[in-house]
Model the fold of this input.
Amino acid sequence: DAGVIQSPRHEVTEMGQEVTLRCKPISGHNSLFWYRQTMMRGLELLIYFNNNVPIDDSGMPEDRFSAKMPNASFSTLKIQPSEPRDSAVYFCASRPTGAGNTIYFGEGSWLTVV
Amino acid sequence: GNSVTQMEGPVTLSEEAFLTINCTYTATGYPSLFWYVQYPGEGLQLLLKATKADDKGSNKGFEATYRKETTSFHLEKGSVQVSDSAVYFCALSDLANAGNMLTFGGGTRLMVKP
Done:
């Protein structure tokens, strides 16, 4: 299996621009997660989908952030408009249902907003 | 609610030293417990896990035992190597009370000097 695939791996954008991060989860995994990691705040859960339905988006920082999962094999995280404080590594992860099951992370999208 | 508390880092050790990273948890139900490792520039990956009390997870010389009486899952390694330098995250999964989400600790950075 190719694992969780994220794109782009690196993005540098100007403040005010729209940023779209993409994720392809592992086939057969029915839960998908978006995390953000910074030195200051550590690893934060932004949103969690189960069977393509958003279950918990309480971690989404504000209205500038939105996430969609139109089907079981694709999800996007969009920031519009972007701000310098959004600079972080954004991880997508997927997991099959089950308490003992492993969550698998992608390699992350490294976002810099200047 | 559920929570995971890890010792704050960084932990700095010399090569071949003994490692302990403490992890304690609070959970409503009967969680599964995990240790994840994050190497520089990469996503988190599973190091080991235990799904019930008194289970011991082990991998790559690392061990952790699920202690229900002390609500702990401390990570140990008898002799660390420079290549073990990474950030280590303790996590729990409580399917009955938190769905398919994992609750992560804040992470502990380990630095091993030659």
Observations:
- The radius of gyration of chain A is 13 Å.
- Chain A has no helices and eleven strands.
- Chain A has a mean pLDDT of 94.
- The longest strand of chain A covers residues 42-50.
